[in-house]
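ok here's ABC transporter substrate-binding protein, seq below lol
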Amino acid sequence: MTTRFAINALVLAIGLGSALSSMAAKLTVVEVITSPPRTELLQKMLSEYKAQHPGTEIELISLPWGQAFEKLGTMLQSGQVPDVVEMPDTWQGLYASNNMLEDLEPRLNNWDGTAQLTDKTLAMARAANGKATMIPYGFYLRALFWNKKLFQQAGLSEPPKTMEEFASDAKRISQLGNGISGYCMRGGVGGTNAWMMFMAAMNGSPDFFDKAGNSTLTQPGAIKGAQLLVDMYKQGGAPKDSVNWGFNEIVSGFYSGKCAMLDQDPDALIAIKNSMAADDFAVAPMPVGPSGKAFPTIGYTGWAMFKQGKQNDLAWPLITFLSNKTNNLAWAKFVGTLPIYKGAEQDPFYQTPQFAGWFKELNDPNYVPLTMPTHLKGWGYFNSVIVKESSQETLLGENDTEDMVKDWAKYLSKEQKSWLATQ
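and the structure came out like this:
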C-alpha cells in the first residue's frame, strides 16, 4: 500500500512537474518593426530555437509599426507582459527611465558572446541609464542614396559633398520637370532624423544640450538647418505629397525615379536593390556643413525583457540565441543593419560599393555619428508625435520655422533638466 502510494505520488509529482515545465516554456515574443518578409525570417529563427528546445512553445505577436508604441503600452497596462520584446532605441529611454526593463549586466557577464560585441554595441545597450537594458541587433546609420541617371540628366556627375551643394543639386534636378524632384523628404512619422541631422550639420555640433540642460536647437546654425529643409520643400525641391511620406513612400519615391536623393539607413537597400540596377545608384556620405563635418544619425534596435516578466530566466536563452553571431549576421543582412560583432564588416556581403558611404562615415573623423537623446522619458513622444505634427504645419506654411524650433527646444530642455535632476 505504501509502495503503491509512493508510486502514485511520484507519478503525480512528475505530471505536475511536466505541466509546470510546459507552462514555463510558453514564451511570447513581440515584434514591432513589422513586415511580412521580416516576420517570416524571425519565425524561421524561432522555429530553429524550438527544435533545439523540445517542448518549448513560442507565440510571435507582430505589431504594425504605426500603432506599435500604443499597442505595446496597452498590453503592459493590461498585464500581458511579453517575454521578449523588440526594443527600438527611441523607446528604451522611456522604459529604462521608468525602471521597467530588466538589468542585463549580470547575464552579460556570464554570456560567452559578450566579449565579441563591439564597443558601440555595448555603449548603446547601456545608453539609457548606464546599465544594459537590451542587446542591440544592429545599427541604422544614415547616408545619402543618389540616382546616377537623374544626376546625369541634370548635368551633375557626383553626389553633393556639402549642404550648400545638396540644396543646389536638389533645385537643379527639380527643374528637369516631369514630376521629378531632388529630395525624397520624410514629412510623416519617422522624419525626426533628417531634421536633427541637418540642424546639427549646419550648427557644426552633435550636442543636443549644454551643460545646464538647455537645448542647442535654437542656436543660429541649427535654425538654418531647419530652414534649409523648409525652403527646399516650399521651393519644389521635394515632392508636394512628401509632407505625409513615411519610410515606404520615400524608398519607393527613390527607386521609381520620382526623387533623386534619399537619406536613409542600410535597411532601404532591401527594396532599392530589388528595383534598381546596381549601376544606377550609389550611396555616399552625408553632405558636410560649414564646419566641414556631418553628423549622420545612428540608431539601433534590439531584444529586451521587462522586469515584470515572469519567465526572464527562460527568455534570456532565446535572446542570446537571436543575438549569436550566426543569427545576428543573417538578421543584419536581411533587415538592413550594420551588425554588432567585431570584424563583421569584413564579410563579403559588406564589401560592395553600396556600403562604401556607410563605412566611410564610420571610419572618417569628419563624419561623427549623431546619437539621439533616447535617455529622455519624453523622447518617444517627441519623436513620434511632436516633430511630425509641428513640422507638417511648418512645411505647409501654417507655422514659422523659428517658432517650431523654439517649441522643440522648450520641450527637450525640460526633459533634459528633469533627467539631470535624477543623476
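fwiw The longest helix spans residues 2-24. kinda neat tbh
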